[in-house]
Structure formats: C-alpha cells, structure tokens
Design goal:
It is built from 7 helices and 5 strands. The strands form 2 sheets. Strands 1-2-3 form a 3-stranded mixed sheet, with helices on one face. It has a two-stranded parallel ribbon with strand order 4-5. Helix 4 links the parallel strand 4 and strand 5. The longest helix is centred in the N-terminal third of the chain and has 16 residues.
Amino acid sequence: AAVARLFPYFEGNPDYASIISTRHLARLRTMLQQAQTLGAQVQVLQPVPGSPPPPPQGIGDGVGRQMAPVLVFGATAQMQLMQEEIFGPVLPVLSYERLQDAVAHINAHPRPLALYWFGRSDSVRDDVLRSTVSGGVSVNDTLMHIAHDNLPFGGVGDSGWGAYHGERGYLRFCHQKSVLVQSRFGMGHLLYPPYGARFDRVMGLLRRLM
C-alpha cells in the first residue's frame, strides 16, 4: 500500500531510482534466482492497476534498470541476499512469534550499521533499543538518521568503527597531539623514588581521598 502511494508505476517514473549499472542489476536478479532455488517465495510488486501510462521522461537508459520492488519470504542464512549488502529494492521478510525472537536474531549476528524500528508503542520501542546494539537508529523511517548533521553516523563492531558528522567528524579525521607541560607547582615528584616514609604518607593520603 505504501509503495502504491509513492510509486503508482515504476518504469519511466522520475521519482523512482534506477540500479546504477547493468552489472549490479544482474547481481540482484541472480540473488533472487538463488533464493527461489533454495525455497524462498519471491513476490514482485506490480504497478497500481489502471494507473495512467507513464509520460515520457528524460531518464535515459536508466529506465531499463528501474527494478520493481521485491519481497522475499522464507529467506534463510544460506542465501546470498542474507549474507551481503543488497543495495537494491529487495526486502527479505523474516517472521517471528515473539518480539524477543526478533531481538535474539539481531543479537546473534554482527552488529548492524542501522536499525529501523516501526511501531506505535514507545515502551516497546525503548525495550528494543535497550536490548540491541547498532550503529544508528531511525524510528518509523529509514536512512534519516544518516542525514541529520547533529547525529554521529558510524558503525559498531563489524559494521564499522568511529563516527562522523559535525564536530565529531572533524575530530575523527584529525589527529589531536597530546602535549603535557608540567606546572612549576606540580607535585608529581612526591611519587618518584627513592621510596620511604614520605611516599607512604602521600599514598596514605591518596587512598583516603579516593
């Protein structure tokens, strides 16, 4: 229903993106063929019945690479589309009985770069976010956390290390050289050898303070 609202037709629609090259389009089709061979159910979304024919658009040869959205049911870990980045309009759908099963599935795999949560319950949302680890999160949307300049963007674990955007990006891609200049009033010499009664008194004071 959402796709039908956004894209009543695909081919020639200037609002609908094209796969970047014929090689990547062939890769996506190969993934789907493999998924079907391994038992998945592949459902290609169709244009809205009775929608007007698309007007001529200046998309060029990209029209031939406007791949219709595809849902894949029954996807398993052995399938290529569950092992690699997809970068195309292909959505594997995994069913679950309890929310804890979905959380356990996420936590059993490498940390994701992004987690997208959809729902109306704030408490359920908070439970999922507390129970999972991901590079970033968009709630009731996708991708938008990446576009927000004030939110650090980056991965965790296998999905990446560090983050950028704004001040965090500036610091991430710079090297901050640490320089310590001892003050004339520094008391570090009290911790130097030779050790004796004075050192014991200093350490006793530090222990009481800590």
